[in-house]
Amino acid sequence: MTEFDYIVIGAGSAGCVLANRLSVPPMTRTLLLEAGGPDRNIWIHVPVGFTKTLNDPSVNWCFETEPEPGTENRKIPIPRGKVLGGSSSINGMLYVRGQAQDYDTWAQMGNRGWSYDEVLPYFKMSERFERGGSDLRGGGGPMNVTDMRESNKLLDAMIEAGGQAGHGINPDYNGAKQDGFGYYQVTQKNGRRHSTARAFLGPASHRANLQIETNAVAARLLMEGKRVVGVEYKVGEETRQARAGKEVILSTGAVQSPQLLELSGIGQPALLKDRGIEVQHELPGVGENYRDHYMTRVNWRVRNALTLNEQSRGWRLVLEVMKYGIARRGMLTYTAGIVHGFVRSRPELATPDVQYHGAHASHSGGKDRALDIEPGMTMAACQLRPESRGSIHIRD
Description:
With 396 residues, the chain is an alpha/beta fold. The chain has three domains: 158 residues, 3-Layer(bba) Sandwich (FAD/NAD(P)-binding domain), CATH 3.50.50; 50 residues, Arc Repressor Mutant (Orthogonal Bundle), CATH 1.10.1220.110; 144 residues, 2-Layer Sandwich (Glucose Oxidase, domain 3), CATH 3.30.560. Helix content is 23%, strand content 25%. The chain has eleven helices and 20 strands. Strands 11-2-1-14-13-12 form a six-stranded mixed β-sheet. A five-stranded antiparallel β-sheet has the order 7-18-19-20-17, with helices on one face. A hairpin with a 2-residue loop joins strand 13 and strand 14.
């Protein structure tokens, strides 16, 4: 059994950061395990390629919910990254810190150290905002954050309409306040995706005291009494074990963290026994209280405007590919949402409770997300504080 000081399971948005920070002391040995492979897929790095990665099982676990009665028994996709960088390598690259009041609420509930004033230094430390640093923004961190590289008359009109509707226009929703409409800020660098694998893991990958294993699927946590001391994992057909002298850090996301805990005998005793798993530790909350931002969208046909529907076909697409290849600009730099709107559904609310995502594109549906032929636009919306809760558990 190989021994390390720290074992980080999952090289996703958080795991890559942890591996970087824990391996700074040269005498500390860290193992980073990732079930997916290296981030070599070209669609990971071209921003508009998120439309490909969201349905690609080579880099995406492609999870789905159980049939939901509230959605006519449809199974709703839950994309999760299966690659170095995790979901930061396949997502829409939108950089949204969240509201200061939400962090303050966490602190008021007893989570010491999580107020906005206490987490702000870490936000600043982690980002390199291309407009420059300030009291609220970081200017020298590893993660590159930039404004959208392209604008569009239809998108400008969306932002103006949000202002005319009384919601205001806000050029920096990650700054002093979140309210208002504007263009999104994105995790890109020089027109390419800047995932945590590129921002944090890349600079650390040469360190002799950091071992990175890809295609390494964690099978169970190794325990001594009530303490986790290591992990058993598989690389192909080979089963391996590793032990941590200090800590084992589970960083496999909201779906697979409860999965690995339950496979290791940590969770609800009745559920574990029903699955034939020996109970190591009773912890009823494992897999419970799952919440996510359910998003709905509305599409419109438009006139007298150039949209991605037309730009993604024929000679216009050839021009866009050339523009991206030469200058890293154009439609290939676009992300999942281009225009944001943070609004209050009722005037008496202290902070926004709804988030809008606008794009000068439309698609009629289906998992292939093919764009419509005719010019169109989309406005999607989600709740910022959803109340519905679900659960995630291993199957029989």
